Amino acid sequence: MTFGRLEFASLRIGQKLAVHYFAVAMVLFLAQMLFGLLAAWQFLDPAFLFGVLDFNVNRMVHINAMVVWMLYGFIGSIYWLVEDEAGVPLAGPRIAKAAFWVFTVAVTIVVVVYLFVQSGPGDAWTLWLINEGREYIEAPRWADIGIVVCMLAIFYNVAGTFLAGRWSGISGVLVLDLVALAGLYLAGMFYTTNLPMDQYWWWWVIHLWVEATWEVLVGCIMAWGLIKTLGARRRIVTTWLYIEVALMFGSGILGLGHHYFWIGTPEYWLGVGGFFSALEPIPLVAMVVHAVYDAGRHAFRANNHPALAWLIAHAFGNFLGAGVWGFMQTLPQINLYTHGTQWSSSHGHLAFFGAYVTIIVAMIYVAVQRLRGNAWMSAGLQGGWRWKWALGLTHLGMMGMTVALLIAGYEQSFVERAIGGSTWQAYFEGQTQPWFVEAMWWRMAFGVLMTFGVVLLLWDLVRIGVGEKRPMKVVGGLDDVEETGSGPVPEGSAAG
Amino acid sequence: MAEGADEPRREWWASEDFWRKCAIFVTGFMALVLVMLTFHTLTVIEAGSEAGRVPAYSVINHRIGYEFDEQRNFAVPVIGPPAPLFGEMLSEEEARRLVDHGKLTVQARNCMNCHTLLGNGAYYAPDLTKAWLDPGWGNEAAREILMTRFLDDPIANARTFGTGRRMPDPNLTEAELRGVIAYLKWMSAIDTNGFPHGFTPLPQGPLTGGGR
Asked: What is the pLDDT at residue B9?
């Protein structure tokens, strides 16, 4: 094995597939950025591409590219770790390859139809073939079915591999979480005339994905990532993972109620949703404590600095974006003013970035290191400025956008809702206030900045480790005598 | 947990086993509560259910008001005397079909990626929850005509309030257009716990007398 050269051929089957998934994910990430920029520019110049690529098309591609690339990132991460974790080769490699190509061809067709057909007549055919018209899950029904079939195939690969090999705390949580994640998607696959009924089940998919099952999934990835990059003790990360699952599902499942304040659902959701969703930041605090504790305990001696940096960014980003920004508007007394304003947009941007972009990028860095023949990626990395600048620019860009949108949201909820009386007149008064317009300019500027960061990130992922002559740093060694959690280790004996 | 005499005892609250059980129990319990609440909520939000939160589709045959409720401390939809949409009294099934066509059209034209419905969607264009009652239509007599005219040619009839944001022409058929208006009228009669805040509807005739 030569350090710094592409070692694709020596990867495991699952890892090769993971590289495919990661590659598509990054292409879609760039697409998400570009369509986000188009939509952001339309706020400033509504005549831009009017009648050609209208705001609704750009915005749909922006958010759908995101959902899909994150799924690709998760699936890639799972394929990357499954054989390592189970200790056996991937079960059903042919099915796995077929699933990748079917999924990717389906996504391509859906995007082409979004861009060139855009919409259709008001009948069921449009929902089946073109666009379902429901935010985040716009994919037409044929694609829904395709996604379910692919998810079943992937589930077969993952569960089959663990069944053939060894189970661990991480894999147990992962497999059960995948069952829930795939099952929940079914809740979004039907049509009803009744809008409250529609939105009730729609939130089962959206909320119970991003605020429950996706969070637990990244908890699994985080646990595995800390073991790999820091050599963290398995018993510690597994215990933390269980704590996170208990707290996450304990708050997040009924936290679903914060989407049921204003959609025609009964008033008890105001109390249930307000209370439990207010608890949702707690597991995110636990994740920060856990990540920082482990990193600190190992004195930040990591074999992959970019991956560890993005893991830490995930811990804080998740807490800040999902936790703090979510909490700010989760109580019904506040949400009455902020629901459906740029507050939600601000929260959405930071939460998806902090919680999910970061950890997928971390996993890709883990993969890239292996792809480069387990080359050195710790201190003094050649061209190390790239990953640092990419990290800095993407975070600065995202924080700038988030704060700009939050200012727009404050202004909107104040002018439109609190004093304007929520009419269309009031809506437009809010949209034309100088502070709102300025905020939209700042959002645009920081969006461009973030795009530079993403381009730099992609360049770095292709170039990092090229020509590196040193082998990967050996980590752990503090107290990793205990691998499976079967034998007791005296607390503090190794650190002391 | 301590297996050797030399080992310090691992506290129960720090043990993997305790937290695994905890995770399973908490997840199961919360899921059970959610399922139970869901069964109840689904009966409440059935269109035309006794709870009155989500109206029957034939509500489009009536005038819909929005009045402050002292007890609940926010405004709620009030169903008034007959005021048939497009001058036609529809049966429950006819009304359902019309509203259904409207909802299919709103989904097929991807309205939700500019507008919000019940506050959910995108923030480029105004919320449609109370579109039927918006004071921007002027008065009851002009509303149907203006809505029809606007949806028929939103570019020529654009009112951008200084934002420059126009609605692209959705090229609605006559039937789709009527369906969309029926859907918006029905939507305005959903009890949304006072959302959006402080909304006052356009002037309308009396809400009492001849109501359901």
From this structure: 64
β pairing state of B120-121 and B62-69: unpaired
Q: How far is B198 from A421, CA to CA, in rounded Å?
A: 5
**A-B C-beta contacts closer than 8 Å:** 276
- Cα(A341)–Cα(A328) distance, rounded to whole angstroms? 13
The residue with tokens 């909802």 is: B103
pLDDT given at position A2? 61
Query: Is the Cβ pair B23, A42 closer than 8 Å?
Result: no
Q: Which residues pair with B120 in a beta bridge?
A: B117
- In CATH terms, A302-474 corresponds, of 3.30.390.30, 2.60.120.10, 1.20.210.10, 3.30.365.10, to 1.20.210.10
pLDDT of residue A492: 39
Best mutation site among B146, B197, B199, B202 for testing chain A: the one with the most A CBs within 10 Å? B197
Distance from CA of A262 to the nearest CA of B (A): 5
pLDDT for residue B7: 54
CA A251/CA A405 separation, integer angstroms: 27
Per the CB < 8 A criterion, the answer to whether A93 and A13 are in contact is yes
Determine the average pLDDT of the residues in A481-489: 38
CB contact set of B145 (below 8 Å; sequence gap of 6+) = none
Å between A227 CA and nearest CA of chain B: 16
Largest CA distance in chain B: 89
Question: Residues A289, A294, A299, A303: is their CA dihedral positive or negative?
Answer: negative
The shortest C-alpha distance from B94 to chain A (Å) reads 13
May I ask the CATH class of domain A1-166? mainly alpha
B40, B110, B136 ranked by CB distance to A131: nearest: B110
Q: Give the domain ranges of chain A.
A: 1-166, 198-296, 302-474
- Per DSSP bridges, beta strands B116-117 and B74-82 are unpaired
- Same CATH topology for A1-166 and A302-474: the answer is yes
pLDDT mean over B208-212: 57
The residues, ordered by sequence, that sit 6+ positions from A160 with a Cβ below 8 Å of its Cβ are A91, A92
